[in-house]
Amino acid sequence: MYVHELMSRDVSTCDPETTLDAVAMMMWQRNCGAVPVVDQAGLPIGVVTDRDIAMSAALNQKPLWELRAGDLLNGRPAYTCRAGDNVKSALRAMWAQHVRRLPVVDDNGHLTGILSMDDIIARAERGSRGAPLPELSFDDAMATLKSVAYHH
C-alpha cells in the first residue's frame, strides 16, 4: 500500500508570516489539527498543530493575532514523505520523528498532500488466522501511534 492511497490531497497551507489566529481558523473550518507551513516556492518548511498554537499562546502570554506560524518552527526540519512511498516507510518516519502527520511532496519537494495517523488508522486491518497479512496491519498502525504518543 502506498502513501497516495491514504493521503489527504486538499490541504490548507500557511506561510511563516500567517498569524496563529488565522491558522486556528483554517483548522476550525477544515476540521483538521495541522496546517503545513510553506515557503515562497511552495516547499513545506514545517507543520503547525493545534497543540503548537495552544502552547505558544500559553508560553508567550500573547494573543494569537500577535504570534506567527514561523515563530513555531524553531529551525526544526519538515519531515516529509512522497506519494509513491510505501506506507510502512511513512510509518517508520513518523515513529522515528515522533510526528502524527507528514506533508507529502512531489519529486521537486512541492506539497501535494498530507498523511496523518488518522488516515492510517482508518485503513489499518486486523489479520485473521490463515489469511495473508494485510498490507497495512492494525499492529503496525498501533505500534507507530504508541511511539508517537509516548511522552518524551
Number of H/I helices = 5
Spans of at least 5 consecutive residues whose pLDDT stays below 50 are none
CATH structural architecture: Roll
Distance between the termini: 30 Å
Instruction: Give the CA-based shape.
Output: globular
Sketch the topology as an H/E string, one letter per element.
HEEHEHEEHH
Largest beta-sheet details: 3 strands, mixed
Helix content: 25-40%
Radius of gyration: 16 Å
Number of strands: 5
Structural class: alpha+beta
CATH class: Alpha Beta
Query: What is the CATH topology classification name?
Result: CBS-domain
Mean pLDDT: 85
The tally of structural domains comes to: 1
Strand order in the sheet with the most strands: 3-4-5
Task: List strands and helices in order, with pairings.
Blueprint (H helix, E strand, L loop, with lengths): L19 H11 L3 E5 L5 E6 H11 L20 E2 L4 H11 L3 E5 L5 E6 H7 L14 H12 L3
Parallel strand pairs: 3-4
Antiparallel strand pairs: 1-2, 4-5
What labels would you give this structure?
16% strand, 152 residues, 3-stranded mixed β-sheet, alpha+beta, globular
What's the short story on this structure?
With 152 residues, the protein is α+β, with helices and mostly antiparallel strands. It is built from five helices and five strands, in the order H-E-E-H-E-H-E-E-H-H. The strands form two sheets. The chain has a three-stranded mixed beta sheet with strand order 3-4-5.
